[in-house]
Amino acid sequence: MRRAAARLVNRALSAGERAVPFLRTRRCPCCQWAGTRFRTIAFVEYSRGDAQCPSCGAMERHRALSSFYPGFLKSLPRQPGRAIHFAPERPLVSSIEPYCKAYQTSSYPKQGWADLNLDLMKLDLPDASCDLFVMNHVLNCVPDDKPVVREMARVLTPGGMVLATMGLKEGRTFEHPRESNETYRDYGIDDLPSRFAPFGMRTVYAADNLDAPARRLHGIPEAIPVLVLIKT
Which of 98, 157, 196, 212 is deepest in the core (most CB within 10 A)? Predict the structure, then answer.
């Protein structure tokens, strides 16, 4: 009974959206879907409303990053040559690939649609062979990030960069005694420079370029910090 009622409500909303365009109060910048609200997602611990695009699956951070990558990449002095997107998210491909000369995806273990199967702790790539690495919530999910930093510095060209997102907290990085919820550490802002010493570092914010109405339209509650690591 409840499911049938829910289907009727959804049909009515869809019909209303088609008849009255101003009811479309949400738009996904990743796939251009428009509707009244994003989907609710539910976990064991909590649920979050107005979160996931029903068309492409983009979450809030994907929608924020899709507004950031094109402008950032176009602002670089030169177009990145070879770019690798680690643990790739499908909704973000179109906001990165057109702005790089060669774009590849990599997952470890390999997903069906990824191009490569690279272990960040021991990259099977030649020295100075890549210009850009993109990775979101990856660095905190590797057992040891020290070899990862060394390998990234080895493989990137001079001036090459890493665009990485991860949860950031005040204080120093906390290493979990064992893998917790698929993460090994919570990064703290105080020791980031020493942990990523081979790189110059700055933090920028995805969706910081959007005004409040645009953020509401795209369902982005807050700007997302992006760590920019530049090989010196």
Answer: 196
